[in-house]
Specification:
Layout (H helix, E strand, L loop, with lengths): L1 H29 L6 E4 L13 E8 L4 E6 L4 E5 L4 E2 L4
Antiparallel strand pairs: 1-2, 1-5, 2-3, 3-4
Length: 90
């Protein structure tokens, strides 16, 4: 039984940082509102903004099911899913 407990503890140590990241991201996304800054997690097609580009939320759809985000360069408004957004890096 002790070996199983040690394995369980090891798994928790490995997964804990990842769980913390997920909790932080969920907290960030659930608190998003108009005028909040976000960072793009993906490259948009057609020479649109690239991953890491910071934009501003200008509309929240259906309690956060998607967000209209305005980017400056190139100037573009894009509707994005929460999975495509991250907090802006500081």
């Amino acid at each position: 039984m002790k070996a199983i407990e040690r394995i369980g503890s090891a798994i928790k140590r490995v997964l804990a940082p990842e769980s913390e990241k997920v909790r932080n991201w969920l907290e960030f996304v659930s608190s998003l509102s108009v005028r909040d800054a976000v960072s793009l997690d993906i490259n948009l097609p057609d020479e649109g903004p690239k991953a890491g580009t910071v934009g501003t939320v200008i509309r929240v759809h259906n309690n956060g099911s998607s967000f209209d985000v305005e980017f400056e360069n190139p100037r573009r408004v894009v509707t994005l899913a929460p999975q495509q957004l991250n907090p802006p890096s500081r």
